């Protein structure tokens, strides 16, 4: 989302097994310009789901809902980490390269962006959709576990709520973050949803029902990280992450990072 005040307003949930080991968002070690959470799952260590660098690169990934994923497929989280580390490929060229290797992965949606002095660029590729990446024009987009802007009820509901908030010019930066966190923590079920149910035919009915909420809650799987990223017109970044502690849905920690893009 772009407004006159902000070049980017991003609100994202990470849904995952509560027990999957992960590192909360932070800069990658001493002098690193990359900020993200990290997967610590064996064999997938170092992958991520969402990150941004001080050099102006951003990437985010979601899984595509499908039955019987291939257990031997490559880790999708490396698609985010590799882009953030790459110093040569622009966002579109990177996705073009990824599209030639899409068959090596289970279903995913990948967004890459770069914030530059001359022009900001954001691109999208989903390996269960069009074979070519696309450039995203300024606007409001919704992405869940289907292709970009697939009209699942949860997505439409969240997008409406998001739009009403970012159009409220009276909100301060802190107020905007808090209101967007309210969007991401909404546990209201959006059922029945025939579009989502058709795609998730391999899932149990209780799981499909749980997955119909913006904030997913089931016994062992659900929303465990909420992230808000704001990039203003002066290249200032505010990155806020709220993350679950010790697989306990009642215990959360919130951290915030502020820095200026080096573009």
TrEMBL record:
<dbReference type="Pfam" id="PF05742">
    <property type="entry name" value="TANGO2"/>
</dbReference>
<dbReference type="GO" id="GO:0007030">
    <property type="term" value="P:Golgi organization"/>
</dbReference>
<dbReference type="GO" id="GO:0009306">
    <property type="term" value="P:protein secretion"/>
</dbReference>
<protein>
    <submittedName>
        <fullName>Transport and golgi organization 2 homolog</fullName>
    </submittedName>
</protein>
<dbReference type="GO" id="GO:0005794">
    <property type="term" value="C:Golgi apparatus"/>
</dbReference>
<dbReference type="InterPro" id="IPR008551">
    <property type="entry name" value="TANGO2"/>
</dbReference>
């Amino acid at each position: 989302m772009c407004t006159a005040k902000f070049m980017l307003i991003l609100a994202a949930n990470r849904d995952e097994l509560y027990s999957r080991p992960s590192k909360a968002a932070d800069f990658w070690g001493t002098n690193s310009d990359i900020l993200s959470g990290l997967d610590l799952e064996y064999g997938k260590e170092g992958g991520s789901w969402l990150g941004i660098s001080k050099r102006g690169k951003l990437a985010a990934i979601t899984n595509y809902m499908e039955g019987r994923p291939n257990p031997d497929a490559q880790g999708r989280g490396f698609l985010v980490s590799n882009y953030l580390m790459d110093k040569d490929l622009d966002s579109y060229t990177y996705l073009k390269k990824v599209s030639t290797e899409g068959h090596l992965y289970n279903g995913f949606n990948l967004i890459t962006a770069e914030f530059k002095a001359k022009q900001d660029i954001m691109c999208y590729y989903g390996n269960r959709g069009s074979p070519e990446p696309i450039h995203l024009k300024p606007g409001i987009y919704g992405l869940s576990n289907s292709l970009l802007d697939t009209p699942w009820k949860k997505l439409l509901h969240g997008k409406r709520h998001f739009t009403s908030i970012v159009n409220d010019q009276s909100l301060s930066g802190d107020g905007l973050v808090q209101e967007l966190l309210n969007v991401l923590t909404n546990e209201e079920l959006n059922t029945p949803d025939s579009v989502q149910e058709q795609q998730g035919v391999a899932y149990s009915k209780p799981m499909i029902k749980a997955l119909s909420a913006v904030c997913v809650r089931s016994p062992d799987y659900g929303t465990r990280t909420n992230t808000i990223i704001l990039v203003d017109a002066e290249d200032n970044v505010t990155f806020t992450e709220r993350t679950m502690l010790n697989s306990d849905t009642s215990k959360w920690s919130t951290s915030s990072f502020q820095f200026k893009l080096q573009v």
